[in-house]
Design goal:
Layout: H1 2-13, E1 38-43, H2 58-69, E2 74-76, E3 87-89, E4 92-98, E5 101-109, H3 123-134, H4 143-149, E6 156-163, E7 166-171, H5 178-182, H6 190-195, H7 200-205, E8 213-219, E9 223-228, E10 243-248, H8 252-260, E11 266-268, H9 275-280, E12 284-286, E13 292-298, H10 309-318, H11 321-327, E14 332-334, H12 357-366, E15 375-382, H13 391-405, E16 407-414, H14 416-425, E17 437-438, E18 442-443, H15 447-455, H16 473-483, H17 488-504, E19 508-514, E20 518-520, E21 524-525, E22 541-542
Parallel strand pairs: 1-10, 1-11, 15-16, 15-17
Antiparallel strand pairs: 2-3, 4-5, 5-7, 6-7, 8-9, 9-10, 11-20, 12-20, 13-17, 13-18, 13-19, 14-19, 21-22
Amino acid sequence: MLRNKICSYVKATAIAFSVVTLSTVLAVPYKTAYAGGTLKVGMTAADIPTSFGQPDNGFEGFRFMGLMLYDGLINWDLTAVDRPSGLIPGLAESWVVDPNDSSKWIFNLRKGAKFHDGSEFDADAVIFNFDKLFDKDSPQYSARQASLVNFRIPAVKGWKKIDKYTVEFSTKGPDSFFPYQVVYILMASPKQWADTGQDWNKFATTPSGTGPWRLTQLVPRERAEFVPFEGHWDKTRVPKLDKVVTLPIPDPNARTAALLSGQVDWIEAPAPDAIPRMESEGMTIVSNVYPHVWSYHLSRLPGSPWNDVRVRKAANLAIDREGLLILLGGYAIAAKGHVTPVDPWFGTPSFDIRYDPAAAKDLLKEAGFGPDNPVQTKILISASGSGQMLPLQMNEFIQQNLKEVGIDLEIEVMEWQSLLDRWRAGAKAPQSEGAHAINVSYTTQDPFSGFTRFLRSDLAAPQGVNFGHYNDPEMDRLLKGASAAFDAKERDKWLAKVHTKEVDEALFIWMVHDVAPRAIHPKVKGYRQARNWFQSLTSVYIE
């Protein structure tokens, strides 16, 4: 079985394994005689993501709402299954740094793209959407949408229309990461906002983007329904399905039962112990290497036990990651840091993250802790959510690991979106009082998302998602060097230094990298799992 193959490969190499696909249908020309059908998806979220442009519920919100209804100026290449996804043109056909000023970017927009309401996408729409998020004096400003995405694009300083199909952006300094930030800004229709009374809540009931799907029904906490947008500018992305229905099912056992009973055709994050039964009933388990790390993000405020590097290293040495792999049915990779050792950003750290409880106890003793004086700490976690894997079971497992070496971990559980709100508020926020860490799974698919947003001092929450208020001038220098490097190889060298310092100082507690298993009914065809947090359903059909 695939699961056994993964386990063996992980133990041998701790790197990627073969891509599993449901079909080679993408080789078939568009609009063949497929029966479209209806696909029902069981999400890990407890609610339907917001539909007014920028989605909530983390990257699951992007996956099952944001990128279905909307396009960005830049998109991810979700057709890539044997390599990490790169950036490709979206509503911008091209983008380039101004040759005379590296803090300015010129975006050349796509001609002929239409919103679902029939209006034209152009430079005015770009300005409208950036004003919506960054200009508090604009009539379309949405504080809620701004809170969901602004931390992902801190580099932006200004934006202006050059002509109908050209926009100029200015950044706060030379920043080669800017395209990786722009990718998260989704384009909503100015006309539809005006036609719905300039009310984003009303807009959300009949949203209009340029994406490959249109929303036809939304019932909070119950379901969302989508149909193809036949007028999409990229005809290869017009969906083959007749309809997609997404259902929030946060409990993994409930998701599994829903799949086996025929309530849904597809589930995110199946319960690992139920995978053999699902396979025996013909379900396909689809997985791939994922730019993901499951970790503890630590508070560095005064009084936090994690300010002592010996305690941080001890916790990393106390985790039985092989045991976690067994708990997860083999669908994970043991972490040696924020990225895997084969990543060009891994660097040359001297601290070896491994399971060594004796060394952990020695470090804690050196730091003044022991069985009679354990470290007292508290972590915020969710019961479910995008990329969270099995947070309750995993955290209970880790809690016991830490207790065995002299760290008493208190766990506070909340809903996924509430956890994200605490994460963005940061460790200093009143609602985070008493908490010394947070468990939010993180993407590592680009330099900004993987490193900068957590480690740069000026991005301390709520300005960014440096949750713990980590502040190190040397790390700031390394990150500045990386962002100022427009040559990819030079940038990789800087990022390798960032990661080396990150691991050697044990700035996080790292457990595993996810491989994003999904359980899918055999009647579902055409899906290929990209090496990305986001996925496309446009190639899928029901046989």
